[in-house]
Amino acid sequence: MLRFLTAGESHGKGLVVVVEGLPAGLAITEAEIQGELARRRLGYGRGPRMRFEADAITLLTGIRHGRTLGSPIAIEILNSEWEKKWEEEMSPHPGTPSKVLTQPRPGHADLTGMLKYGFEDARDVLERASARETAARVAAGSLAKALLAQLGVEVLSHVTQLGSVELTLDVPLPTGRDLERIDESSVRCVSSEVEALMVAEIKAAAKVGDSLGGACEVIAHGVPVGLGSHVHWDRRIDGMIAQALMSIQAIKAVAIGDGVEVSHRRGSEAHDAIYWNEDSGEYYRTTDRAGGIEGGMTTGAPLTATAWMKPLASLNRPTLATVDTKSKESVVSFKERTDVTAVPAMGVVAESMVAIVLASESLRKFGGDSVAELVRNHESFKKHLHETPSAIS
How many domains does the chain have? Predict the structure, then answer.
C-alpha cells in the first residue's frame, strides 16, 4: 500500500510530505514534481499570491540518482515569503503574535477549531486548515502518477462547472492527449466557448469582491480490472476515492460516474450492459454510466469521479456576519489574502488524490518490491484475465 503524510502551515517555513510504499527503481526528477506543482497554480481567478508562493522543492530522502530506493520519500516545499514576511509571526519559538485574529470566517475551520482546541487566535487553526497544504498532496500525487504510468494508467481532470456556468456540451471524454490543451485554458475547460462564459462569471464576482465554487471531473484511463474489493466496507474503491476527494479543502460533494443522475433512471437505463468480443476474447461495454466501478471494484473502463467545491470562505470584500470571539460583538469576518476561485487548481489536487488511491490499490493487488516486479505481475495478470477459472488453475 501507498501512504503519505503532510506537515506544515500555510505561512510557515515550508511544507513536508513523506510518501511510504513506493517500490524501488521508479524514475523521479525534481522537474516532474515541479511541473505538477506549477499546474496547481493555474487558473483565472487566482490571486497574486500564486506569483509569490513559488514552490521550491528539495528531495530529502528515498531517491538516489533519480530512482526510488523503496524507502520512505520525503519532499520539502519551502515558503518563499517566510523570511520576508512570516518568520516572526509564525515562529515556532516562544513569543507573542503581532495581531490576534478574533473574527472567524463563516465557512472556514476558524471558529470550530478555536472551540475544539481552546485557541484565542484563529491563525492557530487557519494556517493548517488552509488549502496551501494541497501543494504537498500534489507532490505526493506526482509520485503516484509516475508509478501508474508504468502500468499504462493516466489521470487527468477538467473543469465542468464554475459558478453558475456548466459544461453541458456533449464532449468526448478527455484523454492524456487533451491535457496540454486543458491546461492552456485559463479555467482548465475543454470548451473555449464555455471557458469564455466562466471567465466572465469570475470577472463579475471579482468586481464585487466575492468568490465562486464549481466542479471538476477526474478521469483515469487504463485502470486495471479488480482494484478494490467487495468484501469489506473499507476496501471498496469508490469509498476510497470519495473519501480522498472529500478530504480536499472546500469539497462538499462527490459523484462516481453518472452519480445522482443515475438515480432518476429506471434500472434498464441505469447500468452498463456486458458483451463478449469473439475476436479479441474479451468482455466489453458500450457505456460507462458506473464510472468504471462496480461492486467496489474497478471494471477496466475509464474511471470518472466529479468533485464539487464550495465558494471560498475568504472574501476580498468581507461581508459575512460573524462574532468577535473576544468582545462577543457582531462584526464581519477578517480578510485574509485570497482568490476569487480555486476550482481549476482543485482539479489538479483531485487528480493527485485519485492517483494516490489507484497507485496504492495497484500495489496491493499486484505487489512487488521493485517497479520491474510490479510490472511483471501486472502483465501476468492481464495475460490470464479473460481465461476461465479451470484454465487458470
Answer: 1
